[in-house]
Design brief:
Structural class: mainly alpha
Number of strands: 6
Number of helices: 12
Strand order of the largest sheet: 1-2
Order of helices and strands: HHHHHHHHHEHHEEEHEE
Radius of gyration: 19 Å
Distance between the termini: 55 Å
Low-confidence stretches: 110-116, 118-130, 136-166
Helix content: 40-55%
Largest sheet: 2 strands, parallel
Shape: elongated
């Protein structure tokens, strides 16, 4: 326990601030530099999840965290340090839980990145016309035969971090929640599991459901280790263009053809020329 506490304190008070000051390339932008800011971001995302961490854990955090909570915080901190998690996205989530907005300078830098959907792109359609998680769960397309989720292709886009999901009948909720993914990525994938075969949703709809941002959801879906069993191909952009898949964006993306194939096999109508799904599939 003492070792975990020491590792946690060193990570948020020394390692991460040092990387921020030196502008490590692990992050496109370092929106914070102070130790207490790193602690806030990690605690909110690893422990608070849907509310500030102080509503779930008494202060001071380090003295009151259980070993499992310390391990989660350390794992998320290390993922930030080596670039596997986007610090700006996690900061936006943390501030959102507290009713605050990210500083404009950091937000502008994040919007310049082109590897995942931007908030501007997700506003192309009014929110009332964007699919919600709830609408994705409504009556399925009567023109298709409901069937099992698509089987894994012979060569997955990203190697899975576990082999357990290959076992027939594996419960997807258990699969996701017992993985080594961050708590936020688990929440994104669990929301995604609610979208049935023959339906689709948007990055913005999932972000609304999770009280997050479209960009954070896009990053959470990137390199989905359980694709296509956990169906990230069922998420498109707000204007119903294909969005991202396999780490590439748009209809010209490296794996766009695979996303189109999976959607079509499930009964979703896709206009390949425009790179868009039909507004209604039933």
């Amino acid at each position: 326990m003492v070792t975990l506490q020491d590792d946690w304190k060193s990570l948020y008070s020394k390692t991460l601030p040092s990387l921020a000051v030196s502008r490590s390339p692990a992050q496109k932008v370092w929106p914070v530099h102070l130790d207490h800011c790193f602690a806030r971001i990690i605690l909110d995302n690893a422990i608070g999840i849907d509310r500030p961490w102080t509503s779930k854990l008494a202060s001071p955090a380090m003295k009151n965290m259980a070993p499992e909570q310390l391990e989660r915080c350390i794992a998320l901190g290390k993922a930030i340090a080596d670039g596997r998690e986007d610090l700006a996205d996690l900061d936006a989530i943390s501030l959102g839980l507290r009713g605050k907005k990210q500083k404009p300078a950091a937000d502008r830098k994040r919007k310049r990145a082109a590897t995942s959907p931007t908030n501007a792109e997700e506003k192309l359609l009014p929110r009332k016309r964007q699919l919600s998680i709830k609408s994705a769960l409504s009556t399925p397309n009567p023109r298709i035969n409901p069937g099992p989720s698509p089987a894994l292709t012979s060569t997955p886009l990203v190697p899975p971090d576990t082999e357990r999901w290959k076992t027939p009948g594996t419960d997807l909720t258990t699969l996701v929640t017992t993985s080594n993914l961050s708590s936020f990525r688990q929440r994104v994938l669990l929301a995604l599991c609610q979208v049935p075969r023959g339906r689709f949703t948007t990055y913005a709809a999932i972000s609304d459901h999770l009280h997050s941002s479209a960009r954070a959801v896009g990053n959470g879906l990137r390199n989905n280790p359980f694709a296509p069993i956990v169906p990230c191909h069922r998420v498109v952009a707000a204007d119903r263009s294909l969005g991202g898949f396999g780490g590439f964006w748009g209809k010209e993306g490296k794996f766009a053809g695979e996303k189109v194939r999976l959607l079509r096999e499930e009964g979703v109508i896709v206009d390949v020329g425009k790179g868009r799904v039909e507004e209604h599939t039933f």
